[in-house]
Design goal:
The structure is a homotrimer.
Chain A: H1 4-10, E1 28-31, E2 34-40, H2 60-81, E3 89-100, H3 108-123, E4 130-136, E5 145-153
Parallel strand pairs in A: 3-4
Antiparallel strand pairs in A: 1-2, 2-5, 3-5
Helix pairs in contact in A: 2-3
Chain lengths: ~150, ~150, ~150
């Protein structure tokens, strides 16, 4: 993995333009070598393609795909924080994964793996992160998944 | 914005005395230049004025007001961490917003904007933060909103 | 509290072997002097002894005990991060506590105190941390509690 910017192309990954919140918060804050990135929703072409509750309105496969879109949105933000050079990412430190689900749902890790797998696909060992995966009754804009992240950069 | 301590008065903001947890945890921990602040509930005069589930027992307007109270509680804690001098706040790094709501609720960002807007009102650009906003089925003491925060100080 | 490794024995605490995630994430990441530890479930002998929703399937007392098991799992991970020497822990910075519960549940702090009390029992004042305690509809593997943590080490 010599050039991470090239690697995205090799993987066929095209990042969306990083989203800009309409409110009084920002997509990320850099403090020292840490980038704290806001909770990302699964946008594709500016829309959330699949909405609702995982295990009810949304299948496992769809939920995993939505978690992957959240991870791509995190990548888009961290790329921006690195002045477009993903090679500056030292480590994916932590992901926080929220899955919209019902009380009887227990497969949160399988859903958030959609985000975790993408990080390792792109960054290799540098992509291995700590994380939490929990359920929530609902998420903004009826999104099925939201993922926040902390990255180390140089 | 030369003196942030004066600015609070100009804005007509009076902070509550920072709350002290009754249990084996503390309101904040400082590590390096970061202040990690515990999840704050919307206390006013020592009480949570509006309780329950946003969108069911609690209106949007009330929920936003409760998020603002959470932000004031965060301010009170960070002021304490800065030996009472808010000018030492370098940046509001991150807010984590939890909204008590039902599965069909989708307006978490609008609620947590109550906290975000207050940060920018007080700190200007230094108040712009990364954040997440998610739903939860319930919160301590039947509070409708809880907000945690990370601040950079010098 | 001169030797924390001895202290565990004095307290009659035996840590489980730190769990190793089966997926593309890791139990913790060290960045500078901070250890970010993944959300820990209440494992005992490789199993979650009590499952379900606190206040419905799980009593308060059981929930508190499960939060304590989450704290032990965090200890096991941070011990590993310190090359087995708990004396290198400078401070427990933050715990994030998730309690599986229904919308009418309000005693999240009492449950997460199970984790907080253990930290102070083991580390004394160094164990005092910031934290949040919130409800969630459900957790991985039907666990009643999940706790993530940030520790400062030297």
């Amino acid at each position: 993995m010599n050039n991470l910017n090239d690697k995205l192309k090799q993987l066929g990954i095209e990042l969306e333009k990083p989203s800009v919140p309409a409110a009084n918060y920002i997509p990320y804050n850099v403090v020292g070598n840490l980038v704290f990135i806001s909770g990302q929703l699964p946008f594709q072409n500016g829309q959330i393609p699949i909405k609702g509750i995982v295990g009810k309105d949304v299948t496992m496969e769809q939920g995993i795909k939505m978690a992957e879109l959240c991870a791509l949105a995190l990548l888009s933000q961290v790329k921006n924080a690195c002045d477009d050079d993903l090679n500056r990412v030292v480590k994916v430190i932590k992901l926080g994964g929220f899955v919209a689900c019902l009380p009887n749902f227990t497969q949160h890790p399988e859903i958030i793996n959609g985000a975790s797998d993408l990080m390792v696909k792109v960054f290799g060992d540098k992509g291995k992160h700590s994380r939490f995966a929990v359920g929530v009754p609902s998420l903004p804009r009826n999104a099925p998944v939201e993922v926040e992240g902390i990255f180390e950069i140089n």
